[in-house]
Amino acid sequence: MKKLLITSIIANTVIFGITYSFIANMSSIAFAIMIYLLPLIYNVGATWFASKKLSSKQLNQLFIGLPTISTIFYYVFGLSMKNNSMWEMFINKNTMTSGSVSFSVGHNLISPSQIIFIIALYGCIEFLTKLVLKNKKLEVI
Questions:
Q1: 3 state SS of 83
Q2: pTM of the entire structure?
Q3: CA–CA separation, 53 vs 91, rounded Å?
Q4: Per-residue CA distances from 4 to 32, 87, 129 (Å)
Q5: Does residue 140 have a pLDDT over 50?
Q6: Is pLDDT at 139 greater than 90 in this prediction?
Q7: What is the average per-residue pLDDT within 68-82?
Q8: Which end of the chain is more exposed for a tag (fewer CB within 10 A), N or C?
């Protein structure tokens, strides 16, 4: 299990590092994929593949550990973007107005509502993965 958690740290470092490096030139869709979707895909995939090899206790630790690691990386990323000129460029590039409709990116990635959203997103998807595995008779509880 330690190997999976270390791999998660490496995967999140790569995901958030690439996002940080290219944020000024990213579209909002690419940003959402990198920040929200890729950590979820990794977490679900790692849990799914590990479910046959780990004990129930180890899997329960994994169900908590993987979303926690992703949330910590998101928070650190949000802190690094606060008052960062690259983030301002991203916001300006991805703010659009067409008539009475406008789309804008929030200025603060680490506002309480955003952190609650991230915890809920990463945690709920991992919980759903646990339920699916339980229903597949993989003895995950």
A1: coil
A2: 0.88
A3: 44
A4: 24, 31, 16
A5: no
A6: no
A7: 96
A8: C
The continuous run of DSSP H or E covering 97 comes out as strand 96-98
Q: Do residues 51 and 59 make contact, with C-beta atoms less than 8 angstroms apart? A: yes
* Chain-centroid distance, C-alpha 66: 10
Enumerate the domain spans of the chain: 2-87+107-135
- Tell me the pLDDT tens digit for each residue of 43-56: 999 999 998 888 88
Q: Is the pLDDT of residue 112 over 50?
A: yes
How many helices (H) and strands (E) the chain has is answered by 6, 2
At 105 the three-state DSSP class reads coil
pLDDT at 38 over 90: yes
Q: Are 37 and 19 in contact (CB under 8 A)?
A: no
Question: Max alpha carbon distance in the chain (Å)?
Answer: 57
